[in-house]
Amino acid sequence: MRRSLKFLLRPTTRQAAALASCLEEHRQLYNAALEHRRTAYAKAGVSIRYGDQSAELKHIRGDDPDGQGRWSFSSQQATLRRLDKAFRAFFDRVKAGRTPGFPRFKGRGRFDTVEWPKDGDGCRWDSQPGHPTATFVRLQGVGHVRVHRHRPVKGRVKTISVKREGSRWYVILSCDEVPAEPLPATGAVAGIDLGVASLVTTSDGTHVANPRHLAATADRLATAQRDLARTKRGSTRRRKAVARVAALHATVRRQRLDHAHKTALALVRDYDMIVHEDLRIANMTRSASGTIEAPGRNVAAKSGLNRSILDAGWGVFLTVLAYKAESAGRELIAVEPRNTSRTCAECGHVAKENRVTQAAFACTACGHAAHADVNAAVNILRAGLALREAAQAA
Asked: Source organism's superkingdom (predicted)?
């Protein structure tokens, strides 16, 4: 199996400056390649491909030895492939009839990652294996950068990426052939219902609290954003204000990810099979504002619900749960979410009126009463068991 591992970098002042230069040069390369494609098509009707731009890299590096020529040729090819991927996604959306969204130029705050496609080609993980206490990664043009390796790296390192998050730098390893770590069977199965009041509710009645990390930081974030709004563009004060806002958001993101890891690990340890709803979170959090001709209704309420859903981090949690279940040898099943919260787990009666309040469920047909999220989790588990039986019969 493949896994990605993320470690904090500890660069020196000079290395941090070199990393920033590397990121900026790759951003400029991306923007120049995008301008090349746009101009060629607008002036001559010619479509430029990745192969054409990759072939020009040799001349670009030769003409700019102190700039583009300092960095790894392979990492620059990866940046050009990134642009090519953006164009392919654009044309796929056009063919599918969706809003296309033409690839855009990257501002300084919109380009934060450089990738080296192969370990050993312009980069080297664990570049000083004989060092008794520390781990280093070597990057062409930067040097041997110390890594805070908080866990062992298993499998074969395939690609190496460096990412800037605020004032911090991280190295991200994509590893192939990572061995699975199966857990002993427990004989237990569970359906889980994701919510806002409780992040996870299991079919056996367990509730996992939603920490609401963004809500807890809302006051400090609002203050930081007001300070940012008062600053002048291009000023030192504005750069510091932007850094404060970014640091607060990064803290919330790390807290949310940490909670997702702990919750998913507890579920994987306790259950052999876990069933969840196949949620379309992007659709669920779509704005209700509508258009001038057809304005939306209950916009403020829908906006608050969207913010709560995104703060809960359902997408992050399901992603973490998926790879932890795969590594532990657990079975993970996604089922259709329609009517799971309106169906009685006892008699199967489906009605909107069954959901009395956010937390209370009372069947209008048989009188069954339960916590609404527990009732939904039981329905989710039942649907997952039916899917598994159908798959085994086929």
From this structure: Bacteria
Strand 189-194 with 168-176, pairing: unpaired
- Whole-structure pTM value: 0.85
The active-site residue out of 193, 227, 336, 346 is: 193
Domain segments of the chain: what residues? 3-176, 189-213+247-393
Of the candidates 277, 326, 336, 346, the residue annotated as catalytic is 277
Active site (annotated) includes residue 52: no
- What dotted CATH number matches 189-213+247-393? 3.30.420
Nearest by Cα to 146 from 12, 15, 10, 19: 10
Whether 277 sits among the annotated catalytic residues: the reply is yes
Count Cβ atoms within 10 A of the Cβ of residue 243 and give its class: 0-12 exposed, 13-18 middle, 19 or more buried.
middle
373 has catalytic annotation: yes
The tokens of 220 are what? Answer: 């400090």
Cα torsion at 76, 77, 78, 79 (round to 10°)?
50
356-380 pLDDT tens trace:
898 899 999 999 999 999 999 999 9
What pLDDT shows up at residue 1? 86
